[in-house]
């Protein structure tokens, strides 16, 4: 990832003064207070992770897998992300770039259109895949969900020029993007394939995006919005990532049992939920996922459900039921430590930034601490300390439930990718 991409990601995702020192940041966002002081977080009690709905204590991996995990997945569906449909029977794949040499012979490039519906003129996404050319057997892969079209973020003249959404309109992605360029060769050098998809192919990222995205296809006659427990945009993007996995299972050059998934910010939330729902993903790297992702909702710090639920902001990203907890988060039956625990025993890395106050990096760390007992049921390791590591400290990075915080804000740094690749090499 280049410096241009870092700055672009920081600018594009900044909100509520993400780039400002804590003392200078706004104390009100969307008309609601924001807290950045540890002594004002308040007290809270997390819902019990290892106690089933019928009151039984969960003490074995089998009990977790067979009883508690299904309960929690359903609670998150009903109360946060919403239910989503299964794989569409009419889905098809078109590999329009079947294997072209790229990066001076270092990679084999593939481009695939995934048609979600029988009507191939709409509801489709374009996947870009690079396989190390030297590979003699199916390779592990990093699947990245991106804020930009892949022809905008990767230097390769053979790429399809896709379309993106801007100001509520679909336009050709033939102009530079603030997100800069992705360094694909670092993955190839590690023997890891790389794939990416533009999230707007699946569902546009704005309030009325349901009119154009995959959720529109599933609306009943006369229905203009989803029901209270049905999918928001994050679940729609997660659904699209499951469809990418459907393709990976058909590609003999990809080891579909060794695929990691990564996204940042709202796409970090997406990667986490997608990995929870689709256990075919071997690993998740949830970068700077914050509120609604890995950060504890009951901890009053930075962004809250109340901020998300304001109609001018991100109401559409979650199930409507989620917003009923905006003014009473303590009544919500789930919290982020449960979401994190649902990845167990698969590897999960939470990547945060020390000055990303809005996303609450400490809230993500405490979430991992609270989720660690579930990993322990599987004899896997999570944080074994309640002392938050300093920025740059890699002591918790390589756990099955890993945590790493860089010095800086709401972004993914080049050094983060170095650590992420080390993590993937260990567990893939």
Automatic annotation (TrEMBL):
GO terms for molecular function: carboxylic ester hydrolase activity. Residues 229-377 form the 4-O-methyl-glucuronoyl methylesterase-like domain. It comes from the Bacteria. The keyword Signal applies. Keywords: Hydrolase, Serine esterase, Signal. Residues 1-19 form the signal peptide. This is Acetylxylan esterase. It comes from Dyadobacter pollutisoli.
């Amino acid at each position: 990832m280049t410096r241009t991409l870092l700055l672009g990601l920081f600018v594009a995702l900044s909100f509520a003064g993400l780039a400002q020192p804590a003392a200078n940041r706004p104390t009100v966002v969307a008309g609601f207070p924001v807290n950045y002081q540890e002594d004002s977080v308040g007290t809270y009690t997390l819902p019990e992770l290892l106690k089933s709905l019928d009151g039984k204590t969960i003490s074995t991996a089998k009990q977790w897998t067979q009883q508690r995990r299904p309960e929690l997945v359903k609670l998150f569906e009903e109360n946060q992300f919403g239910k989503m449909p299964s794989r569409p029977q009419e889905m098809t794949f078109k590999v329009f770039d079947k294997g072209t040499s790229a990066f001076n012979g270092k990679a084999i490039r593939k481009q695939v259109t995934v048609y979600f519906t029988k009507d191939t003129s709409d509801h489709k996404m374009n996947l870009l895949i690079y396989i190390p050319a030297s590979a003699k057997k199916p390779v592990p892969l990093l699947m990245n969900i991106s804020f930009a079209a892949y022809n905008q973020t990767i230097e390769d003249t053979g790429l399809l020029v896709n379309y993106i959404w801007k100001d509520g309109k679909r336009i050709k992605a033939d102009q530079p993007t603030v997100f800069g360029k992705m360094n694909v060769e670092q993955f190839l050098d590690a023997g890891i394939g790389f794939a990416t998809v533009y999230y707007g192919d699946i569902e546009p990222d704005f309030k009325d995006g349901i009119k154009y995205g995959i959720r529109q296809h599933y609306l009943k006659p006369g229905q203009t919005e989803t029901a209270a427990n049905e999918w928001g945009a994050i679940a729609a993007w997660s659904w699209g990532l499951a469809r990418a996995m459907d393709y990976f299972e058909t590609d003999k050059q990809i080891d579909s049992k060794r695929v990691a998934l990564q996204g940042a910010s709202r796409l970090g939330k997406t990667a986490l939920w997608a990995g929870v729902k689709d256990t075919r993903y071997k690993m998740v790297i949830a970068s700077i996922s914050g509120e609604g992702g890995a950060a504890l909702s009951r901890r009053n710090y930075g962004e809250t459900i109340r901020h998300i639920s304001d109609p001018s902001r991100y109401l559409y990203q979650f199930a409507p039921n989620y917003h009923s907890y905006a003014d009473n988060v303590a009544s919500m039956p789930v919290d982020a430590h449960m979401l994190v625990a649902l990845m167990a025993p698969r590897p999960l890395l939470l990547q945060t930034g020390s000055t990303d106050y809005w996303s609450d990096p400490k809230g993500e760390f405490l979430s991992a601490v609270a989720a660690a007992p579930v990993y322990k049921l599987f004899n896997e390791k999570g944080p074994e300390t309640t002392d938050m590591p300093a920025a740059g400290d890699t002591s918790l990075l390589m756990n099955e439930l890993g945590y790493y915080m860089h010095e800086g804000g709401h972004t993914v740094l080049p050094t983060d990718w170095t650590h992420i690749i080390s993590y993937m090499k260990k567990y893939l």
